[in-house]
Amino acid sequence: MTEKTIFVGDTAQQPPAQHVKGEFISLLGDTFYKIENYDGMAPFFMSLVSSSNHWLFISSTGGLTAGRVNAEQALFPYYTDDKVTENYENTGSKSILLVTRGGRTNLWEPFSARYKGSYRIERNLHKNIPGTALVFEERNLSLDLTFRYAWRTSDQFGFVRSAWLTNTADTPCHVEFVDGIQNLLPANITSNTQNIFSPLLDAYKRSELDLETGLAIFTLNSTLTDLAEPSESLLGTTVFQLGLDKADYLISSLQLDNFRNGLGITTETEIRGRRGAYFIHAEAELASGEEKAWHVVADVGQDGCAVDALKNRLNGNRTELVKALEQDIHLNDLHLEKIVASADGLQVSNDALCTAHHFANVMFNVMRGGIFSDGYNLRTQDFIDFVGVRNQDVLTNHAAFFSELPAEMNILDLYARAEASRQADLIRLSYGYLPLTFSRRHGDPSRPWNRFSIDIKKVDGSSKLGYEGNWRDIFQNWEALAYSYPEYVEGMIAAFLNATTFDGYNPYRITREGIDWEIPEPNSPWSNIGYWSDHQIIYLQKLMEFSVKVHPGKLKDLLARPIFSYADVPYRIKRYSHLLKNPYNTIDFNWDLQHAIEARVKEHGTDGKLVRARDGQIFHASLTEKLLSLLLAKLVNFVPEGGIWMNTQRPEWIDANNSLVW
């Protein structure tokens, strides 16, 4: 096939390079994996990781969503991944350059599709091994300029978008540019509001600029409500820049077309009823080989005190502030490496790609299942807090036990003290105490029905322990974690067994606070209840096999000891005759029991979700009984020559429908 030269007006189109390859390179003092000519691939989705509570999901197109803790504290709108991918022209990074060389001025928008084919370009993507930094690079071979920008995070400062502009020609050039980020969200906006009420939301937005410091503050004039009550919004999103001494500012995208057309811009100090943006307007004379760098720094949920403190820092020594920023970014990387190292995620080998994969695998494991905050050590107050949430009666009835505990102790010492008490509830809760942190559910814009929350800090900024996840995701990651912390393996087994039901199944979610299950929502077509019965046992089996290896005889000692509990999930599997008549509808929801459980939880703690004996106390079972209940659930549904009949509404019909997709 003969290739044709295609023109747009008088401009011959220059197709991008299509040869995609990957390699490790050194960049920013770190090792990065580089994908050369990544724009020759279909758009793909990535995440950036932080040792703190940041989250950032980004497409190779440049579109992104980001924030802290969860989707309710977003810096950019939390949309599904297809929308994030498609919105790259109006959300996230945006750069527009007017390049003058030899008396001619050229318009260049790196990473934009607006003028695709106008220049010979090469686009490269770089991500460091920990996954804490992502660098986009566009080399304009026609203009002899290279523009790079990176996304990184800082616990102290927030989200850092750094930019570098390099003159690769032998001659100097003049560049006038507008650069920054757009579609910024103020504070106090829920993800539901972002997705459903965005036109109304825009009307409530207010953007302000402090001319003295270049600090922009994005707020709501009031929170969205239909109630007859005051609704002040007292938190804001802040953005500032470092690195450009002489600059003008835009706090909206309204004047971008004026700049594209060479009409100049006017600094904006207040904008109402428009989506927020933060753009720096500056000029630079670049000698041959010279590079200009700057940073745009944004954070969410800032109160008045934080804003004043930030203004004071910006009025101080900005060179020192840049150093502090880079140091805090480095500290974030170091803390993440320590987290991964504590789960044996650091390797050294001759295969760099293999060791990078191992680091990533371990990192994503602990992001789901969590990591033990201080190895086998624990703070007694945190254990007491844990018991207080689970069972207030145990705290009251065994006050002497808790008062005798030292301020800090080893988990094995706690087990020994609990065993010596001979109290089933103390033993059960001690083994069930897993001082994990860094865990979150596996939600992201590609599966937004799972609501993640990186809840690792208390209000005062101190570390907060906890874990949360769907049953499968927690236990499959604990299997790997057990190899790094074998003394916790019986605690993991106990967490599994204490949450299974009389009829041999497990609830949907498990957290530090206890268990959770799905409740019918008649008005939601996506609402469903049931037990996920296809893959639960293998996780218990692997944990038990490991226990036998590292602690021979330990499980045998538990066979006849009634120290385990049953989850009181208000699902009732219908009789066999009903299953035959309608295998699509096999479970009834017991609303009376649900209400009784809610009352117990309110009065006693989350142990109210456990089965009670006739005397009202928690019913305890031995390891033998617990294992038999799981085995019998499979045996009674075994169909000779057919397999195990999965008749608990999940996942059999979901997976059957999913198979049609493939």
Structure description:
The structure is a single chain. The protein contains 20 helices and 35 strands. It is α+β, with helices and mostly antiparallel strands and 662 residues long. It folds into 2 domains: 93-341, Distorted Sandwich (Beta-galactosidase, Chain A, domain 5); 365-661, no CATH class. Helix 7 (352-369) crosses helix 13 (471-484) and helix 13 (471-484) runs parallel beside helix 15 (537-550).
Give the key terms.
2 domains, Beta-galactosidase, Chain A, domain 5, eleven-stranded antiparallel beta sheet, alpha+beta, 662 residues, single chain, elongated, five-stranded antiparallel beta sheet, 35 strands, 31% helix
Percentage of residues in DSSP E strands: 25-35%
Uncertain runs are: none
Distance between the termini: 34 Å
Judged by helices, strands and strand pairing, the structural class is alpha+beta
How many domains, as an integer?
A: 2
The profile of the biggest β sheet is: 11 strands, antiparallel
Rg for CA atoms = 29 Å
How are the strands of the largest sheet arranged? 3-4-11-12-13-14-22-18-17-16-20
Mean pLDDT: 94
* Helix content bin: 25-40%
Number of helices: 20
Shape: elongated
How many strand segments? 35
